């Protein structure tokens, strides 16, 4: 990592610490921490909206492969209030070498959505020889940023600690996410093993770095001019709920929470799979410039005309799986 990158990351880390510990002229709002699960975003609700413009789309159902075994509701971390769970999808067929692990993070604006939405993706990828994990994490109805970041870091550490049990290589862990999950996947890739974002509990003996990232329509920056996150003109935005501050109230926190702020020579190879919604790509080209400068491999796959929730439907689900498989095969020489 260059001296410049170290300096930038250090300054942003200091900003983040000062924002959380000292605050600013605006008090942090906990209005969105209702303790009540928000179910407004689901595959069915997204389909009901998207099918109006895309009448031929079909929801991808769960698969049932003889070679795919599942364990659901495995506790990966226990907070003061409750247990946090994940699901494991693993292949029973013998392999000549250790497999690649994929952690799949669901979307929903850091506030809604569920890991069950990506069971079909986990099952399909598992049938191709991967080991997949679908975790839950604390949403903004339960806890503000960076609680969700701490949770996914704990997931990566738990997954790495269980490499032998599920027969995968602990140095071949991919973090994949859709929408808000895509943003967090990229954040995992850019802040691996950074003490500031590790949290203080659960599986702390293992490393939290990702070895590859797949970002499916997740923003790279909360403050990029091409983005739209933080527009509270018609209602409180997802980002404002997550941070407890609007962008106007605390822009430095929004910047310090952006993956683009930390991309560096330490960032792993990254695949971007995008819809036709331009603001969901905010910061992508700037991000790739840093990867290119440091000789880090990346790919961009974009579906013309596709809605934001494209990866939940055919005709985009199968090619998305193919893009992921081809990318990881190249990165890990699978």
Structural description of this entry:
This protein has 334 residues and is an alpha/beta fold. It has a single domain, classed as 3-Layer(aba) Sandwich (Rossmann fold). The chain contains ten helices and ten strands. The strands form two sheets. The protein has an eight-stranded mixed beta sheet, with helices on both faces. Strands 1-10 form a two-stranded antiparallel ribbon. A hairpin with a 4-residue loop joins strand 2 and strand 3. The longest helix is centred in the N-terminal third of the chain and has 20 residues. It is globular and about 60 Å long. The two termini are 27 Å apart. The mean pLDDT is 93.
Sheet with the most strands: spatial strand order = 2-3-5-4-6-7-8-9
Unreliable spans: none
> What's the total helix number?
10
Query: What is the domain total for the residues?
Result: 1
Kindly identify the CATH topology. Rossmann fold
Q: List the helices and strands in order.
A: HHEEEEHEHHEHEHHEHEEH
The Rg value, from CA coordinates, equals 19 Å
Q: How many strands, which pairing sense, and closed or not: the largest β-sheet?
A: 8 strands, mixed
Mean pLDDT over the residues: 93
Distance between the termini: 27 Å
Q: Tell me what the CATH architecture is.
A: 3-Layer(aba) Sandwich
- Tell me the helix content: 25-40%
Class from secondary-structure proportions = alpha/beta
Gross morphology is globular
What is the CATH top level name?
Alpha Beta
Number of strands: 10
CATH superfamily: Alpha/Beta hydrolase fold, catalytic domain
**Oligomerization status of the protein chains:** single chain
The percentage of residues in β strands lies in 15-25%
Signal peptide: 1-27
Keywords: Hydrolase, Receptor, Signal
Protein name: Alpha/beta hydrolase
Domain BD-FAE-like: 90-274
């Amino acid at each position: 990592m260059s001296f410049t990158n170290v300096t930038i990351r250090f300054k942003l880390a200091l900003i983040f610490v000062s924002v959380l510990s000292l605050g600013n002229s605006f008090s942090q709002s906990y209005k969105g921490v209702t303790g009540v699960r928000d179910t407004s975003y689901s595959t069915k609700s997204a389909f009901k909206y998207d099918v109006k413009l895309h009448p031929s789309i079909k929801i991808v159902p769960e698969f049932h492969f003889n070679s795919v075994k599942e364990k659901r509701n495995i506790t990966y971390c226990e907070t003061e209030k409750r247990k946090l769970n994940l699901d494991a999808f693993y292949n029973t067929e013998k392999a000549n070498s250790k497999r690649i692990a994929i952690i799949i993070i669901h979307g929903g604006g850091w506030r809604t959505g569920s890991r069950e939405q990506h069971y079909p993706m986990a099952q399909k990828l598992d049938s191709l020889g991967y080991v997949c994990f679908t975790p839950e994490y604390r949403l903004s109805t339960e806890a503000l940023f960076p609680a969700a970041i701490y949770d996914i870091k704990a997931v990566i550490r738990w997954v790495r600690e269980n490499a032998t049990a599920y027969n995968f290589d602990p140095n071949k862990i991919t973090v994949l996410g859709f929408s808000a999950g895509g943003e967090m996947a990229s954040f995992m890739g850019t802040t691996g093993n950074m003490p500031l974002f590790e949290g203080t509990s659960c599986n702390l003996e293992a490393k939290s770095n990702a070895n590859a990232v797949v970002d499916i329509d997740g923003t790279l920056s909360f403050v990029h001019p091409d983005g739209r996150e933080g527009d509270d003109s018609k209602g409180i935005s997802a980002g404002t709920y997550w941070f407890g501050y609007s962008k106007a109230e605390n822009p430095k926190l929004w910047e310090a929470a952006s993956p683009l702020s930390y991309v560096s020579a330490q960032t792993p190879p990254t695949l971007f799979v995008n819809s036709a919604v331009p603001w969901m790509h905010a910061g992508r080209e700037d991000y790739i410039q840093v990867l290119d400068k440091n000789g880090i491999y990346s790919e961009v796959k974009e579906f013309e005309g596709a809605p934001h929730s494209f990866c939940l439907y055919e005709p985009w689900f199968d090619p998305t799986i193919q893009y992921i498989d081809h990318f990881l095969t190249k990165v890990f020489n699978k």
